[in-house]
């Protein structure tokens, strides 16, 4: 970990660990929390700050069920079971799980209802492109993002996903994408605000069970050591 004034640079492992624990503190299952760690760590390796986006999403989830926004996979149109914006983690895991199927969402034009914090969906889309060996083109109002089968993507377009809270998009596949048009420049780990790190740490602490009189009275050894 490196400190620079009010910002810090976390290693990929540090980012993954912190964000996984924070997701667990916000109510995600351990399995989904691990996927959160993967997503934010992957983004950090690309030089993109996913921790700040995660903090915003988890802060909203603290006042509502963590599993809100569960995707309902309807052919050609993925929707949310509860009409809330789709959860990017649950959606991402579901898309990756189906990426190798013959009738996968990437074998046809697929519409996605608004996705909450879409930046956190990007790592899963890249993984799905690699698994399906298809070039994915994602279109939304005002923008387009292309991902090739080797995981290359146009980074400048992806950065546009940092700001929106929810974004509806369309996924199509293509076989004539020019890799030369996409950015594959090496990335440096991003610096994040110390307040972001502290905020995620505070949410992570919600996994800690508060001490009770019973737990205090039972602390320590139940036997004496007179040796």
Alpha-carbon distance between the termini? 44 Å
Annotation field: number of helices: 8
Radius of gyration: 20 Å
Q: Estimate the helix proportion, in percent.
A: 25-40%
User: Which structural class best describes the helix and strand composition?
Assistant: alpha+beta
For the biggest β-sheet, the strand order reads 3-4-5-8-6-7
> What is the tally of beta strands?
9
- Outline type: globular
| Strand composition percent | 15-25%
Which oligomeric state applies? single chain
For the biggest sheet, the summary is: 6 strands, mixed
What is the H/E order? EEHHHEEHEHEEHEEHH
In round numbers, the mean pLDDT is 86
Which residue ranges are poorly predicted, with pLDDT under 50 across at least 5 consecutive positions? none
Folded structure, characterized:
The protein is of the alpha+beta class and 227 residues long. Helix content is 37%, strand content 19%. The longest helix has 16 residues, at 30-45. The mean pLDDT is 86. It has helices at 12-25, 30-45, 51-61, 88-97, 122-132, 155-159, 194-204, 213-217, and strands at residues 2-4, 7-9, 71-74, 77-80, 110-116, 135-140, 143-147, 166-174, 191-193.
């Amino acid at each position: 970990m490196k400190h620079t004034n009010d910002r810090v640079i976390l290693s990929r492992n540090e980012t993954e660990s912190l964000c996984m624990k924070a997701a667990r503190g916000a109510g995600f299952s351990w399995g989904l929390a691990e996927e959160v760690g993967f997503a934010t760590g992957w983004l950090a390796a690309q030089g993109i700050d996913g921790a700040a986006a995660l903090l915003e999403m988890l802060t909203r989830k603290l006042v509502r069920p963590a599993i809100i926004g569960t995707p309902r996979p309807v052919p050609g149109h993925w929707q949310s079971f509860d009409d809330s914006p789709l959860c990017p983690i649950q959606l991402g895991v579901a898309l990756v799980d189906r990426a190798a199927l013959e009738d996968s969402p990437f074998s046809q034009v697929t519409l996605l209802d608004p996705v909450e914090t879409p930046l956190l969906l990007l790592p899963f889309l890249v993984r799905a492109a690699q698994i399906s060996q298809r070039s994915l083109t994602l279109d939304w109002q005002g923008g387009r993002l292309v991902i090739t089968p080797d995981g290359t993507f146009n980074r400048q377009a992806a950065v546009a996903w940092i700001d929106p809270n929810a974004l509806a998009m369309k996924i199509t596949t293509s076989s004539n994408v020019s890799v030369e048009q996409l950015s594959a420049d090496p990335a440096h780990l991003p610096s994040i605000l110390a307040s972001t790190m502290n905020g995620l740490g505070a949410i992570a602490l919600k996994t800690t069970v508060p001490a009770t009189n019973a737990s205090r009275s039972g602390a320590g050894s139940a036997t004496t050591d007179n040796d």
